[in-house]
Design brief:
- The chain contains four helices and 16 strands.
Amino acid sequence: MLPLPGLFNFHYVFSHRFRGGLWCFAPSGLAAKINQGVAWNCFQWRVAAERGIKYLFHCKDMEPNEQTGTTVTPETPQPLRRELRSWGRDLVIALSLAIVIIIFFYQPVKVEGTSMTPLISDQERIFINKFVYRFEPIERGDVVVFWYPLDRSKSFIKRVVGLPEDMVEIRDGQVYLNGKALAEPYVPPESADLGTLAPMRVPKGEYFVMGDHRTSSNDSRIFGPVPRKFIYGKAVFAYWPVDHFGSIPIFAEAER
């Protein structure tokens, strides 16, 4: 029989134990030792064959290093502990950033009262931006949060109607700024107030604020304009209840 190239070939092996010979597919060196009189039983044949197969597959899985000529085994997977440590580190960083943003930029607040309905309802949860007015001025139409001028332990939320040095007047519920009627689409007809306010000029550095629900709002018509230093945030986002989820719309200045 012609020999086959490689580690394994067909050999005729004679066994003294079984008093006979047989052709087998076995390693060349192994067959030579058997023919020299070494007694191999069937179990030992199976173990030898398994070791040979494992050796072949082990050689196949190993990758040669082109630079050094050495053999490099495949890299083992990253341990689970290292993965958990990495996830934990990322979670701590994310929570830290969220805390910094909430403390220095945004603050969750709960609104109590109906002075800003239907835009903001009683017991609604919103976020206010505490940093925005460091970079931009307060605009007419902004919904702001401020310390109540008569009791700084309380906070109010209202809409800015009059800017510093504006002339504000109310006739039968219609607001006039500098002699022109102010369009207020955010005030529902059923919430309008038919009251009157004599013309007054807003002092420099102060703002005239009013609630959208005019008949149930305690605002600048009663306690006067609010100093700039008392205003500490702008309402920007509602998150509860879910049907109010989203940014709080700001109405552009409109005079007619």
